[in-house]
Structures are given as C-alpha cells and as structure tokens.
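hiii so my PI (J.) wants the whole complex modelled not just the main chain, which honestly fair. so below is everything: two entries, each one labled with what it is. i double checked the lines twice but i was tired so who knows lol
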Amino acid sequence: MNSKKFLAGVLAAAMALSLTACGGGGQTSTPSTSTPDASTGDGSTPVAADGTITIKVGGIGPLTGSTATYGVATHYGAQVAVDEINALDSDIKLELRFEDDTGVNETGVSAYNTLKDWDVDVIYGTTTTGPCVAVAAETYADRYFQLTPSASSPDVTDGKDNVFQMCFTDPNQGLTAANYVADNNLATKVAVIYNNGDAYSTGIAQGFIAQAAERGLEVVTEQTFPADTTTDFNVQLAACRDGGAELVFMPIYYGPASLVLQQANAMGYDPQFFGGDGMDGILAIEGFDTSLAEGLMLLTPFNATAEDERTVTFVASYKALSGSDENPNQFAADGYDCMYAIYEALLNIDNLAEIAAMDPAERHTALCDALIVQFAGEYDDAGNQTAPGISVDGLTGSGMTWQANGEVSKDPMVVVVENGAYVTQ
Amino acid sequence: MTLLGHLITGLSLGSIYAIIALGYTMVYGIAKMLNFAHGDVIMVGAYICFFAVTSFSLPPVVGVLLAMVVCTILGVVIEGLAYKPLRQAPSLAVLITAIGVSYFLQNSAQILWGADYKSFPNFLTVNGQTGVSLFGGQLNVTYTAIVTVLACVVIMLALTFFTSKTKMGKAMRAVSEDKGAAQLMGINVNSTISMTFAIGSALAAVAGVLMCSAYPTLSPTTGSLPGIRAFTAAVFGGIGSIPGALLGGIMLGLVETLTKAYITTSLYDAVVFALLIVVLLVKPSGLLGRYVPEKV
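here's the output for the full assembly
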C-alpha cells in the first residue's frame, strides 16, 4: 500500500514537472506579439474602426521534437517580419499565431484544426515536408491559402492550386546544384551520398543525378544510407574514394553530414564536398570542429553573415527577439520572406476591405482565391499567362516569382566555408 | 586491405554493441526484465561527459568517471522508482514501464539540453593525430577504435571475474538462478538487483562515451537505436549470458559493416535482423544461451 502511494506520488510529481517544463519551453519559444489590440477586437471581423485590416496568419511547424530547430527559427523569423510590417504606415496588419506540430503529420493536422477554430485567414507552413503534405490536403479541400517556408517536396504543391513554396523544390535544388558544378568546372567525376529513407534527400539526389548526366558529369557512385540515425559512413566514403570522385554531393542534413566530414578526415580522404540547404546549420553544432568543414560548399538561400543592410537589420532583430546570440538560419529567413510575400500580395488585392468584412467561413475562401491570383498571376483558358504575379525582394532572393504549380523562381546562392564562416560565391 | 579496414570498423562497432548488450543481458538475467530505458541511459552518460569536458573544462577522464557516477545513480533511481514497485506485477507491465522511462529520459534531455545536435569532442588524439596510418596510408586505424576494443575486453574480463569470484557476483548468479531460493539463503534480492542496475548503468556511461567518440553526433535520441541493436545482440548471443553478449555484439557489428560494404548500404538492418531470425529458428535460446525447460 505504502509503495503504491509512493509510486502514485512520484508519478504525479513527474507529471507536474513535465507540465511545467512544457509550459516553460512554450513561453520561451513564443516571441512577443506586437499586434495592436484594437484590430483583433472580438474576432468576428478583422476590420477595425480606423480602417486597418488585420489578417490572421496561422503558422504551423515543429517547436518541439527532433526538428524543433527549424520550426523555432522559422517562427522567430516570421515574427520579425510581422513586427516590421505592423510598424509600417499601412492599413494592413498581420497577426501571427504559431502552433506546434512536433514534425509529426497527425499533429500538423491537429494544429491546423486549432488554427481554423481561431478563424485563421492564411496558413503559413508547415516547416517540414511530411506534415505539410498532410496539411496541404486539408487546406486544399477547405480552401485556405497556404505558403510554406521550407517544405520542399513537389508532393506539397502537386495538384493543389492553393499551396506555394518559398524554397526550391527538391529536384530543382539538385538540378541547380548540378548546373553549378558543371558551370564552374568544379569536377568531372562526382559521387553522391544520400539518405534513401528520406524524401528530401532522395528528391535532391535524383534531380542532381539526372542533370549531371545531362551536363556530362560522370557520377562514379551513388551511395545511400537508410536513416539520419546512421552513424557510420566509412563504407560509403570508401566507395567514393575508390571511384575517384573529385566532388561528393551530399544532399543530407547537417547532423549526419558532420559525421561524414569527420570520418572522411579520419580516413584521409579530401574531395570537394557539396551540400544542399539541409547542410545549413553545420557550423552551429555545439562542439563541432569547424576546420573539418573548411572548403565545404553548400547551396543555401541565406547567408547570415552577409553585409547588406537588410540582412544586418534582420539578424539584429532576430537576435533581440530570440534572446540568443545565435545567427538566424535559412529557415528564419524563409519565414521572414513568407510574411513579406503575403503582405505584398495583400497590398495588391483591390477588394481586400470587402473580403475582410465577410464572415470567417467565406473570408478565407475569397482570400485564398485572391491570393492565388496574386502569387501565380492570371492565366487565360489556353494556359497562357495574361497578368504576372507578384515579385518579391527578400532575404533569400531578389525578384522572386511563383509559377502556377506553386514553385518559386529565384536565383540560387552558393556559399563556401572559409575560416569557419560562410562566404557567398 | 579494404576488407581489413571494414573488419576493424566492424570490430569496434561490435565492441560498443557488446558493452551496451551487457547492460541488457545482466538486467535480464537477474531481474528477468527488458530494460528498454538502457539505451537512453547511454545518451545521458554521453551528455554528462560532453558538458563536463566542454562547459566545465574538466579532463576527459574525470568526465567519463562523472558520467559513470551520474548514470549509476540514475540507474539505481530508475530501478527504485519505476521497477521495484512492480516486482510482483506481470512482466508486460514492467516492459511498458521501461518504454515509458525511455521516453521520459529522451524528452527530459530534449527539454534540458535542446533537440539540436552536439558534436562530441575526440579525446583520443596523440600529437593531434586521431589514428595510426598503416601500410603507407592505405589503412587508417583510429585510436578510438583501439581503445573501444580494449575497453570491451577489459570490461568483459572484469565482469567474468566479478560474477564468478566475488560474493556479490555469486549472489547475482544465485538470484538469476532462483529468486525465491536465493532469498531463503539470506541473499538480499532487492539490493542485488539494484547492484545489477548500478553496474549496467555505469557500463552504459562508458558505452555512451565510446560510441560518441567514434560517431560524434549527440542528440536526445542518440541512444535509442544503438540500444535496440544491442538488445538484438544480446538476444543473438543468448540473453542472460555475459559471453553471449560479447559474441552477439561483435557478430552484429561485423555483419552490419560487411553487409554495408559488400551487399547493400540501405538494407543492412534487414539483413542483420533476417540473420537474427535464422539464428533463433535454429537455436531459440541464442548462440550461447541456455535452454531452460518450463517446469509444469
């Protein structure tokens, strides 16, 4: 009896502890919203007495779980943009609410339902591909406009006119990388190491391999591993070395990539390593010997150490908001650009006040249709574009435009690691 | 030469599995339960050592000892709070509790230390070199690999000595043989089981440090997959048997590495587990396990 009571006490204590811990975590990761109180009102209509229109943007992404780094960054990045936009002298204000999907598909749909109950107008997310595909199916059926900062699979936008991407699709990223390698004569013999249990990695690898053949690059070996929990890459690296690869293309995340670099160094193999945007973050790993990454090239849409004014301001605001000294990564920049893209599109909608005055149930449908036209432009029945969509200058590219299938068009950016920092090529 | 390289990789990987498998097999042998939280104790050990060395600038040896102490306490506390009250409960209840403890540790680590990767420092360098180069650079053997294999052998010998010669070791064997009879002979079953957890968890700390030295990414889920593999190794060698854990671990490491090298890099888990099934079909108690008939 005693031991049972004791156990019950311990369990209760553990539960209470985990609850407070979650609460604490949630608070620290929620940026302060600076939306004017007047505009939110009772939530029935987003048009305030003074004519300002507040659009509710519902973000979804992992704030906890193994991909939390991405979701937290994209949340802060978006909040920086929202704070900037709301400080502008404009009638359009944004209100951002961000829900945690823990990187899990089912949780993503639950988060989306929570946002629907909040009368959300536009969906911003989700951060990772799996939940994004699940949520996109729902938003397509319900008619909500959706813009994802970083879910890069073509499956996200496939067959859904309402979903747009801020990042390159996976095959496009691979294609761009192969073109870059060929254009700059980086190598003639290349090897690819990718995670064939991951759609992101496989998508980029296939895009790269197809384009490499097109451009006359010889792919000496294609090496795979089954999951990001893989820790031993000696076999794959030995195959690359034995094949005589001068360049190893690794469209994989920075965690396993750090192991590849370390093991290549241990075996004395030193080719040119080339990564995708998932490699971003490798220099920020605590305890990582950045000299191992010296010379590493990666395709990334954002370089936090760039010196243009907008990046510098963004980095400063991001650090102030997150309360940490860490530089924002590309997910933060993607989030920032998403907010500006949505804002830009909203500015161009002529009858926004009219739409905003509708009931929540009709509002999101009308807004969805209007935003699709703004992003993709207008097409006639024959499929020819009759009016262009918006063009957005952001942190991750200038003059970004969107195709009707939801893909973004922007110039790729390649950085190389020199003395432990990114240098834009 | 390539084959030799693969064999060395497999041997050092297998040694890590063997050390982890020891924890599984000892606890199973004595408490007759599968402690699925064992893999996460490894992760905790690696974190303790990581922070001791990087944040507090302690020497690596102190870091390892500190990790062992913390893990020992953690193991005993887990046993006392989560498993001891369930001593008379059906084994399924204990199994589910162990899975719960495993998630509790993972999520606590995530809250305490964050979800992002930490890169474990490599302690084992001599004059800045991480390994020795043999045959004119054709073969590179890291010091970590050498130390791992040596540590595994030393631990195995020490444990064999402990269980066969010391009083506590004998008590352990007695409890594993027959809990009731051991109690009647005046052996304190509870403290014996606690002792088993203490030893198993201290070994987990060593395994964690060795594993992260060889494969230096550390995250809250670092321990879970090696934990499962080591459990497989323990079953492979015959769960409950200490030499079996060694044999199973080494075999698993070698099979895994050679499969990756010569058959497939993406399906090696399938091959490893298929082999496990074959072994269990032929010898249901594992390679060195004893078959104990159920008495009716």
